Amino acid sequence: MYFSAQILLDSFNDFEKCSGLKVNFSKTEATWIGRNKFNKEGSLPIKWTDGFKTLGLKFNACEEMVFLENDISTIFSKVKKTYPYVYSSIHDGTTNNVLVATSSPCPIFTTFKLMFCLAKCKGISDINGILDCDIQYGCDAWKSLKQECITCAGAEGVDRFSSCTKKQRVNVAGNMILSKYPITKAESTFFVSNKQANRQGKLIVETAGRTIACTKMTTALNDDYYEPETKELFSSSWAVENLSQAKCIMSNFQQQDKVILMGDLECGPAILSNNIRKEHELSYNNLTIQFDSPYVRDVGHQTSRGANIITTHVMQKGYNGQHTCKRVFGGTYNGIKLSNQYGVKCTIPL
Length: 350
Known about the structure:
Layout: E1 2-7, E2 27-33, H1 48-55, E3 60-63, H2 69-79, E4 85-88, H3 108-118, H4 127-136, H5 141-144, H6 147-156, E5 176-179, E6 183-190, E7 201-207, E8 210-216, H7 238-252, E9 259-264, H8 281-287, H9 294-298, E10 312-317, E11 324-328, E12 332-333, E13 336-337, E14 343-349
Parallel strand pairs: 1-2, 2-3, 8-9
Antiparallel strand pairs: 1-14, 3-5, 4-5, 6-7, 7-8, 9-10, 11-14, 12-13
């Protein structure tokens, strides 16, 4: 039998912003996808059902950057005939039920009062600049707004921010898993307890007797470190934060024999023969103490269309035998570019 794991793309066009179940199968497939942009009416610009068929997805899909309850519901409604099981941080354990929202992410009065103050920051679009402006004018927006509001505002932007004042749940880390088989165990955690503008986390599920981890790690940014509450913790370094996340993942699975880890890990090795430059390479080197990245070893071509780096991965632990990997997708669907990154597909013997 084979486990076919697939990472698909960092994002679609116009990117914004741990009981096993015995199942007879010849192979399983897991896929990692980014968040597609919704239009103002809240509908997807391409049919997800058709898109999933085109992409050849079979058993599991790990999506990222899906922050809002409505977005999760829309995606699931489109694919539930093929993927009848779903999990994210806003779901009630292993059921498909979303936890009931008791309030809006952003209280109307407090939020608009703060927005009026932040109007003085007009023309500033980068997060670091907005945070500095908040301090300069004493708006105290960062201190006053809860994590869910910050995440919602970042996901929706100015044009659709009003939706954040309506009652709904927010999937803060943005991770979401779709599965063809029942999810028998599920866990959602953050890497840190602090509030962050871009807070990362991970989902760990068991489905069809396999443990799958879906995560996104801190990106390599050229910007100065701007997270107010974790500057001291990570010495104002994105690289230190990314390394901390890698070590957290290693700690999670230290006692576990078999795991599939997939996602935008934002780290990768230098491969001089293919002109691949390193990206948070220390994090990658730490992860490969436990995990193997067969794509890097067997293929080694860039996964980003704009940079010579490999940062999206299907990693495995405990699965021996001959792996087969290839780079996939990165083309167009109905005239729309699928992504700014290529997918990675690996077939891993069980």
